[in-house]
Design brief:
30% of the residues lie in helices and 19% in strands. By secondary structure, the chain is an alpha/beta fold. The protein has a domain at 14-64 and 94-139: Ribosomal Protein L13p, Chain: A (Alpha-Beta Complex). The chain has a four-stranded parallel β-sheet with strand order 5-2-1-6. Helix 1 links the parallel strand 1 (14-19) and strand 2 (52-57).
Length: 144
């Protein structure tokens, strides 16, 4: 008896709407990565595209536990000698809170060619408004 593999879905992307209010950063990012990869659906197949997108609102209300606001450091390099830039999570949270959430989710996506495609289906917004009403996103709640 062979192993059942579901066929790849065709058609439009199914969008889901998640409110980040009160969620811890890592817990929300882990659940969001599951939705983007399709692992939450009963017909999950590793090689198939599950055509699901995610809209996250209220990114500024996500919280970091413990001393992570001051101790967590985000680093990137400019490509020039001595061009290592470091900023704290507190500074990122005050200036661009959507980047904090986007980078956490991006780090939990699979490290292969699917990663950039799945990242394009992730939309993160500060505040309760988003410009994707035409996609008719379905509200999605995660168990806490």
């Amino acid at each position: 008896m062979g192993t059942y593999l579901a066929k790849a879905r065709r058609g439009k992307v199914r969008w889901h709407l998640v409110d980040a209010d009160g969620w811890a950063l890592g817990r929300l990012a882990a659940r969001a990565a599951l939705v983007l990869t399709g692992k939450n659906s009963p017909d999950y197949t590793p090689h198939a595209d599950h055509r699901s997108g995610l809209i996250i609102i209220n990114a500024e209300k996500v919280r970091l536990t413990g001393k992570k606001l001051d101790d967590k450091i985000y680093r990137h390099t400019t490509g020039y000698p001595g061009g290592l830039k470091e900023i704290s999570a507190r500074h990122v949270m005050e200036t661009h809170p959507e980047r904090l959430l986007r980078e956490a989710i991006y780090g939990m996506l699979p490290k292969n060619t699917w990663r950039d495609r799945l990242d394009r289906r992730l939309k993160v917004y500060v505040g309760p408004q988003h410009p994707h009403a035409a996609q008719a996103p379905e509200p999605l709640t995660f168990a806490r």
